Structure formats: structure tokens, C-alpha cells
Amino acid sequence: MDVIARMNIGGPATQLTGLCAQLNHDKFDHRLYTGDVGGEEGDHFLLRDSAMPVHRVPGLGRSIKPADDVRAVMHLVKAIRAFRPHIVHTRTTKAGLLGRVAARLSGINPALAHVFHGHLLYGHFSPPKRFVYVRTERLLASMSDRLVTVGARVRDELLEAGIGRLEQYIVTPPGVGLGSIPSREDARLSLGVPLDAPVVAFVGRLTQVKRPDRFVATATAVLRSVPDCHFVVCGDGELREEMEQAIGPMRGSFHLLGWRNDVATVYSAADMVLLTSDNEGMPVALIEAGMAGRPSVSTRVGSVAEVIRHEHTGFVSSADVGELAEHTVRLLRDPELRHQMGESARHWTSSSFGVERLVADTEAMYRSLYEERRANRASAGSVR
For 315, phi and psi rounded to 5 degrees? Predict the structure, then answer.
């Protein structure tokens, strides 16, 4: 039983879609339970035209609303009792809380695995809220059989916060399939981007933790050195209006695309990708960019350095706008370096972050949890 708060456009939904499609259905009865996507976010199902069967959970979603949360827990308890899963696999913070609580309340006693696609330790909360978050995750970790992180650095940061024990953790990097990539010329024509201009892409939600303001500040610095550069922004969110105001003097250099289902077109049209976040897990956008043969520049957060091999497939930078701009300008001015890094990124990401590997890792975890739980029940004299 896979539980995720919402299937909004982003890394968790992308990975879960690939997993659901390729998991061995002869061996695993795998069901997805999710809430609804808010109006300010892109719906993965609508944009990806997915035929994946979904069990909707009333009240489950992004916002914290006590009445809805209780309703979601009770719905999940009922669903767990009806399905009787051997494993409940939760993703995202809210689903991790409600799903694990529901599993314990159900009386079925399934094994519990939770995935940290990132974490909320930095860039999200005030100190008091962060304190509550850490305490809650510590309690939930004590209830869990496996804690899965997308990268080693994410795991280490959670351990430093006292969340879980090292032996509970498994590092399972994302698995991504980009699909067909159009030619650079076709991609630029479809997006209305000049054929001969340098192009930098941003792919992600326009939300505070992604720091679109830092992206605009970096773009401003880049334009001083590369005045014909264009910036393609694929994504939307609560800071879109703020971004539109900030780029006012540079409006002709920006292309705000909103959410799109042809993200491969965005990567193909770009010369490189720029990520300016305060916090990340292991960004799928950087993996996809590499698969499209595009180098990236990103802030040194989360497990970014496990995707970008510094000075080989791109540059990992401090959050300083000047340093981000310097790396970006260097790539834009050096076509040979850009091509070399792009090809290295293609090889690295394709060999390390494929969907098939993610599926194999997940199936191995499921089998391990099932065998452990069966052995424990047998030793207690209560074989299911």
C-alpha cells in the first residue's frame, strides 16, 4: 500500500509513476492511495495523462486541516483493514504522518517504510515549527521498519537531527525516465525561444524553498556578461506573481511557461539548467537535465552533489549569486566545455538513475520486509 499526500508535478510523483508501471504485478499487489492536488500546483495525472489506478483519500492533501486529517486517517484505517497489506509505504511528510498512524491504529500491523524524498529541516519552518517537525519525525521513525532516503547526504542530515537509527536507513536514489527528446531547433521553435541565443532553464515549483528570487538575481548578473541570454522557467506556484514583478525590466529575456507535460522539450531547448534552492533532496530536474545531455549549476544543498559531479557534469555552488552567475557564464561562453559536461552528465545519469534500478531496489526492500515480518511472526507463533 503506497500512500502519498498528493500527486503534484515533482520528483515523488514522477518516481512513483515509474514504480507503479514497472513493478512486477505477478509478485506484488501494489495499490496507490493519494489525496487531491491544490489549485496552485500542477496535477501529475492531468499533465502526464496517466492511466494508473488510484484510490482517493478524502481529506488527504498538502494543507494541515485537523478535521480533514482525522477524516483521512479514518479512511486509511478502513482501507488498511480491507486490503490487509503486508507493507505500508509512505511518501512525503504529511502522508508519512497520517499513513503510519493509520497503520498502527488499524490493528493489521503491517511493516512500515517511509521515503524521505527530501526533508523539512532547512528553509521551510521557523525554529519552533522545526522543533515540532523533528520531534514528530523522531517518534514516527521509532514506529518504522525502514527509512528510505534519496541520497546519502539527506540520510546523514536526518541522522544528525536524531531521526531514526543508521540501521533503519536505506539509500535509494531516484529512478527517472525522460522519454523522447526533440531536436534543439524543434524545441526552441515550439517554445518561442530564439534559435541562436544562449538559454538557461529552471524547472520546478515557484515556491520559497526553490528561491526563484535568487534565480532572478543570478539571471540579472548573467545578463551583464551575456546580454543575449534567455531564461526559460518551467513551473508554477505561489511566487509566480512575485517573479513576474521582479523580471519586469528583463521581461523580454524570460519565458514563463507554467506547468508542461513536455519537460523534455524544455531541456532540449536549453543549453544548461540552473537550480537555486535553499533545500533539496535529490532533484529530479537535475537528473532529467543530465539525461538530456545538459550540464547544470546548482546550490550545494541536500544530495545535489550526488547528482552533479562537480567540474565533470556541472558545477555545485554556494548560494552566493555572484558564484552562481560565474559558473553559469563560464558554461554559456564555452561551448566545448558545455558539450563535454553535457555528455558526461548524460552517461552518468542514464547509468545511475534509471527507473529499472529504482524498481529493483524497491522490490528488494519489499521482499526483505516481508521475509522479516514473516520470520518474526513465526518465531512468535502467529504465522499469518
Answer: -130, 135
